[in-house]
Amino acid sequence: MRSLHGSGLVLGYGRERVVHGVDVELEPGRVTALIGPNGSGKSTVLRSLARLHALDGGIVELSDDDGALCDAAPLSARDFARRVTLLSQSRPHPSGLRVGEVVAFGRHPYRRRFAALDDGDRAAIAWALELTGIAAMVDRPVDRLSGGELQRVWLATCLAQQTAVLLLDEPTNHLDLRYQVEVLDLLRELADGHGTAVGVVLHDLTHAAGVADRIVLLHDGRVRCAGEPADVLTAEALSEVYGLPVEVEHDATTGRVRIDAHVGRGSLARV
Fold first, then answer.
1. Which of 37, 71, 123, 254 is the most exposed place for a label (fewest CB within 10 A)?
2. What secondary structure does DSSP assign to 77-118, as a single string?
3. Nearest-5° angle of CA 141, CA 147, CA 151?
4. pLDDT digits (tens, 9 = 90+) for 240-257
């Protein structure tokens, strides 16, 4: 089991800084949700943890076999991909391939160039297909899949990579209610049953409250607050960050959180 930490992350696009000294810790067996309004830096932070966005400052560290944190930068792309995988928002739409062939892409970090799948590869692919509920679609052309079905295929591809750290950027996009719940349940299963360190960007605050052990609330590229859901999802913090009146109710018995934003022509004026 491995952890992934980003410390003092400073990130930008050209000369424009968009993330200012953010700390994020992803620990084994825990789901950490990054939330915040559009433009707050959530996806940029996640991409930097996946080494897909260059750091202007700070460090990304990955624990080694002994649990000690080490700079992730010197790792080769192959070695890093055996430890960390990312389900991004933007993915290619494969054409002319079947579901099983796409999911097999997740085994590339373990295979020599042009090498055939071995028994370990096939077992990992079968496990990922089963876990995401698409085993019955293994021979279907991806061109005939709905957006939600294709989303699950890409998630299975990430799982076939069998990394200790899983990063997901808005994984419930394009999914109907049932599949949204199934994906969130899967994240909990990966954390609770497999010790995976999960980092996920979510817009739906109710989803974040239900799935996360820890929440990081970002605002203007900085951490507004971080901690357990009940400590972060407060009316004061959410109203400030989202710029409209928000009410939050915590049910002490069930642990559920209810979040209501005031909707109406005068909502923004009341903040």
1. 254
2. HHHHHTTEEEE-S------S-BHHHHHGGGGGGGS-TTPPP-
3. 85
4. 999 999 999 988 777 788
Half-sphere exposure of 237 (CA within 13 A, CB side): 21
Tell the burial category of 66 from Cβ atoms under 10 Å away from its Cβ (0-12, 13-18, 19+).
exposed
How much is the pLDDT for 49? 98
What lies within 8 Å, CB to CB, of 67 at 6+ separation is: 3
Token reading at 79: 């070695």
Distances from the Cα of 65 to the Cα of 74, 83, 120, angstroms:
16, 11, 21
Question: Which one-letter DSSP state was computed for residue 144?
Answer: G
Q: Which residues of 96-107 are buried (b: 16+ CB within 10 A; e: fewer)?
A: eebbbebbbebb
Check whether 265 has a pLDDT greater than 70: no
List helix spans (H) across 57-201: 77-81, 99-103, 119-131, 147-160, 177-194
Per-residue pLDDT tens for 63-72?
Answer: 987 889 999 9
Nearest-Å Rg of the Cα atoms of the chain is: 19
Residue 196: how many other CB atoms lie within 10 Å: 23
- Using CA atoms, how far apart are residues 177 and 136, in angstroms rounded to an integer? 21
What is the Cα–Cα distance from 57 to 37, expressed in whole angstroms? 23
**Residue 164 burial (C-beta neighbours within 10 Å; 0-12, 13-18, 19+):** buried
Is the pLDDT reported for residue 269 higher than 70?
Answer: no
CA distance linking residue 3 with residue 195, whole number of Å: 10
Kindly indicate the confidence band of residue 11, based on its pLDDT and cuts at 50, 70 and 90.
very high
